[in-house]
Amino acid sequence: MTDPQAPSTLPSIGRPADEVMADLTTKRSDDVRWADGRTFGLVFDGGEDVRAVAEQAARLYLHENALNTLAFPSLGSIQSEICGWTSDLLNGSRAAGFLTSGGTESILCAVLAARDRALAERGVTEPELVLPISAHAAFHKGAHMFGLRTRTVPVTDEWTTDLDAMADAVGPDTALVVASAPQYPQGTVDPVPEVAAMAVEVGASCHVDACMGGFVLPFAELEGRTTQPWDFRVEGVTSISADLHKLGYAPKGVSVILHRSRELRRYQTFDFDGWLAGRYITPNMQGTRSGLPMAAAWAVLQYLGVDGYRRLVRTTLDTADTIRSGIRAIDGLRILGNPVHHLLAISAEPEIEDETRRIDLLALGEAMADRGWHLDRQGPPPSLHMTVSAGNTKAVNEFLADLSEAAEQVRGGATGEATQYATLE
Ligand SMILES: Cc1ncc(COP(=O)(O)O)c(C=O)c1O
Question: 47 in a domain, yes or no?
Answer without folding.
Answer: no
